[in-house]
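Pinned message: reference record for Olfactory receptor
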Amino acid sequence: MMNFNISPANHHSFILTGIPGMPNKNPWMAFALGFLYTLTLLGNGTILAVIKVAQSLHEPMYYFLSILAVTDVSLSMSTLPSMLSIFWFNAPEIAFDACITQMFFIHGFGAVESGVLVSMAFDRFVAIRDPLHYTSILIPSVIGKIGIAILTRAVCVVFPVPFLIKRLPFCHSNVLSHSYCLHQDAMRLACASTRVNSLYGLITVIFILGLDALIILFSYVLILKTVLGIASKAERLKALNTCLSHICAVFLFYVPLISVTMVHRFGKHLSPAVHTLMANIYLLLPPVLNPIVYSLKTKQIRRHILIVSKRRKK
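Predicted structure (tokens):
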């Protein structure tokens, strides 16, 4: 493990932390990370390619899935530079401006992903509640406007974060506790009051993640109410089956997020390795597993992946 002599006056950069107790330049960790990022690109790239070439997949559900895939890749790529610099090149130092830029993209794409999951819950509600008018309600222009609204909301909410960090004086250690830059992580190193940052972070979490989770929950209450009104048991199961992939994606996003929050708030006695592991799972797991879940649970996507694979073999 490299030893850094941190000067209280050095605030032009931060030092990112790998996994406590493990040398930063670890070939096994580097291989595992490379494998995860490769899976993310291949999985989401395959989903995007299949939806593009298969005309039968040009439906609202798959357009939203495309947006989710792009968001997952973007979120994953936001952490890539710092992760590789630590575990591949043993260079954990990151410039202050680069750190707050990474911070903006990580929080921004996290907010976008939450919004996309909400829009996908709305998509499932419309498909089950009004299947005859489903494609006429969620036409491409409407989906485009929803996507723009999600992106605009994320940018507007996260835009103040870099400025709130930049105004703070840093005169303590500049060693962060993760392999990438987060607002709450950098904020704790400040030697001035961080009340405004804490309050804004709390409002953001409630407005974005809390509100989105409630909307998704309410959407599924309405979906369940609609499904229970269907006379045929087979039709009820078929309707619920179309929601399984989205439910898995919601759990993959919110369960690690809630776990990270709980560990951060109440797990101060836990090993630093636990904090690091949970934080990495929160950002790395959903982009890897989402395309796998949709490929396994969605028959149409699975069938077209096999068709495309056979064409390439020929």
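Pinned by admin. Summary line: Residues 7 and 95 are 15 Å apart (CA to CA).
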